[in-house]
Amino acid sequence: MKKKILYISIAAALFLLSACSDDFLDVQPLTKVPSTVLLTDANGLTTLLANLYAKMPMEDFMYNPGKFFNYHRDLGGNAFVDFGWSTSFYTDESNYSSGSGAGPVNDAYWEYGAVTMSGNNNISNGAYGSIRQVNQFLQDLQTVNLDEGLRKRVTSEGHFIRAYMYFGLVKRYGGVPIIKVPQLPGEDLFTPRSTEKETFNFILSECDLAIENLPATVNTNDGIYRATKWAAYALKSRVALYAASIAKFWDKAPLTGDAVDNKLVGGMTSADANNYYTLCLAASAEIIDNSGKTLYKPAPATRTEATKNFQDLFQNPTGAMEEMIFLKAYIDGSTTRMQGHSFDVYFNPSQTAPSYSYFGRFNPTLDLVDLFEDYTDDGTGKSVPLITRTDGVENEYVANPGTGLDLAKPYKLYNTPSEIFVNKDARLFGSIITPGSIWKSKTMVIQGGLVKSDGTKLIYQNGNALGLDGKTYYTYGGATGPEYSGFAQLGNNEQGNYTSSGFNVKKYLKESMTTITQYLCTTPYIDFRLAEIYLNYAEAAIESGTGDAAKAALYLNALRKRAGHADNIPATIDNIMKERRIELAFEGHRYWDLVRRRDYHTMFNKTSRKALVPILDLRENPPKYFFVRALNWPDNNAGGRTFESKSYYKAIPDVATNKLIQNPQY
User: Fold this and answer.
1) What gap in Å lies between CA 425 and CA 434, rounded to an integer?
2) Rounded distance, CA 661 to CA 542, Å?
3) Most buried pick, 55, 57, 98, 212, via CB within 10 A?
């Protein structure tokens, strides 16, 4: 039998990611070393694990859904990766300031077999290159001389990582080839696709193997970012809910073709859906009942405290470990350009931006902001859209306020830009920078234009005018770019550094960070936290009609109570999905929720996301503000955004070479 080699690059050996403690930085530089040698050495074992964790397809701060998956250019990525994108930009919760569309994530997360794709056995990128390394790791663990307790633990870690990798594949492609051993040149590499159901079942069985011997807790000696049994249960909860949704909602966007006939996509029944919902409920309950995890600061004394607590949860996740289940860590990479991320670089608003050419690009939509409740707390949980008019009409949107604003409409006047947001759910202010709010000790100036004292409109253009009070006012709220954060340079991709929606992201931005450079950011990424598990349980319970409906309502309302609400609302599916959008906004869930529940193609059908445009009215003395509901400029300029039904699955690449059945309509 040919000697099996697991290739480890120097960069990968030094890479601190999901599973790493500081000890991972002390390993000796390696080039090509047999994995069986590494497994008998403590540093070698941590090196292998760090490398495998680093290859998990986590959609974190370093993920660009339109380019290459989770690799720095220094670590084998074959193109520059912009660490400033998010799956959120493909949804109705946010957009990229200079424009982002709807459609399938276009990451390069596929490589089928070493020989068939690259012609040699040295593969490092792509899903199957990574899976091969996990397979080699799991195989070699069974033959080396290793403490049995340690062998069992790291074997379970391997199964957790492999489950995560296959989940990344199934939610993109449907059923895929299931390869559980390292393939070698000369072997039959043309493994056919399994059905979508078989693939989900394999992933869930991998989660069970991970649960078997993973520890309940981790410590600083082991590395606090390594997987625990609760991380494996959380992955099982997420996977089972996803599979259940595909089984239940497939017919909302049915497809046809060979892949469908062979059940490589679709082909599951209502019985399958109920089975997966049951698995989701059981995995979720195991975490809720036995992990000891609790919500971070679940009972705030005031709404202001609730806002701060929610913001702190994401600024400092390691300070909220009672809620955290699985995190990804980073270290300062500003000198090496390897380990750190750049979330704070790309997404701080203009007024607090670093000295870098890209900033302010994460723009939450009015669609999302309108979902938040106020504190009426009447037991219904209904959303309360922002009040922009005195006639109660809040479903009318101006295509382009620069040309189409009708001043005869009864817009409500406000004294300040922040007044319109009074009494809104605390999580709004913990997640989103709103006009007139304070961020890093600065008042955020987000303004789309002004109306001169004579009624002339200056909107979406540079300019200034005298008010009735004799003062000079500017269309964007300030004379120069650093003085404002909204609507300037619309459509300019290179300089699209100002919100085009009327809002900037706050969640995950570190307010205390004053020096901001690329790769400097070290805020951990939250992959699993208890709030998601609460919502997974609630959705599975209500969609299936099984589980404990009273507990579903309890978990739903626990999240609202943390936000300062006093009432209890019923656990309807509408309330649960709304709460999911509010609580988990910008955490990478919305895109896949739209996909798994088959809502994407109806949500995006020549659709423009919505913006809130604050306008200064100089016909008043002192000047007042009114707010225009508008179509998001980049979306409207593109004629709206459309998601095709076929895009629920990506095309299988290189089918002529790998002999796989192609997905429908490709």
Assistant:
1) 13
2) 36
3) 55
Tokens of 152: 């069992």
The rounded Cα 497 to chain-centroid distance in angstroms is 21
Write down the residue that tokens 């304070």 correspond to: 438
The strand pair at 472-474 and 464-466 is best described as antiparallel
User: Is the per-residue pLDDT at 14 higher than 50?
Assistant: no
Integer Cα distance of 393 and 387 in angstroms: 9
β-strands 449-451, 457-459: how paired?
Answer: antiparallel
Is-contact 93 367, C-beta < 8 A? yes
CATH class for domain 6-85+104-292? mainly alpha
* 147 CB-contact burial (10 Å; exposed 0-12 / middle 13-18 / buried 19+): exposed
Mean pLDDT value across the chain = 88
Give Rg (Cα) of the chain: 25
- Joined tokens for residue 651: 């095309």
Residue 35 has pLDDT above 80, yes or no: no
Residue written as token pair 């960070």:
513
Angle at 205 between CA 152 and CA 543, to 5 degrees: 135
Q: What is the DSSP letter of 7?
A: E
Query: Left if phi > 0, otherwise alpha if psi is -120 to 50, otherwise beta: which for 160?
Result: alpha
pLDDT confidence band for 5 (50 / 70 / 90):
very low
Residues 447, 614 contacting (CB under 8 angstroms): yes
Look up residue 366 and give its two tokens.
């009015």
Q: How is residue 283 written in tokens?
A: 């995995």
According to DSSP, the residues that pair with 433 across neighbouring strands are 504
Amino acid identity, position 21: S
8-state DSSP, 75: G
Decide which of 184 and 148 is more confident: 148
Is pTM beyond 0.90 here?
A: yes
Task: Give kind and range of the element (H or E) at residue 463.
Answer: none
Contact in structure between 361 and 84 (CB atoms under 8 Å): yes
Q: Tell me the residue ranges of DSSP E strands in 192-316.
A: none
Give residue 2's pLDDT. Answer: 34
Q: Tell me the sheet residues that pair with 449.
A: 459, 615
pLDDT tens digits, one per residue of 404-461: 999 999 999 999 999 999 999 999 999 999 999 999 999 999 999 999 999 999 999 9
Q: Are 635 and 365 in contact (CB under 8 A)?
A: no
E strand map for 277-372? 324-328, 362-364
Cβ(345)–Cβ(356) below 8 Å: yes
Cα distances (angstroms) measured from residue 458 to each of 14, 159, 492, 637: 54, 60, 19, 19
For the chain, which residues make up each domain, given as ranges? 6-85+104-292
Q: How is residue 57 annotated by DSSP?
A: -
Spatial separation of the C-alpha atoms in residues 528 and 521, rounded to whole Å = 20
**Distance (Å, whole) CA 300 – CA 617:** 38
- pLDDT tens digits along 581-614: 999 999 999 999 999 999 999 999 999 999 999 9
One-letter amino acid at 389 equals R
Question: pLDDT for 265-300, tens place per residue?
Answer: 999 999 999 999 999 999 999 999 999 999 999 999
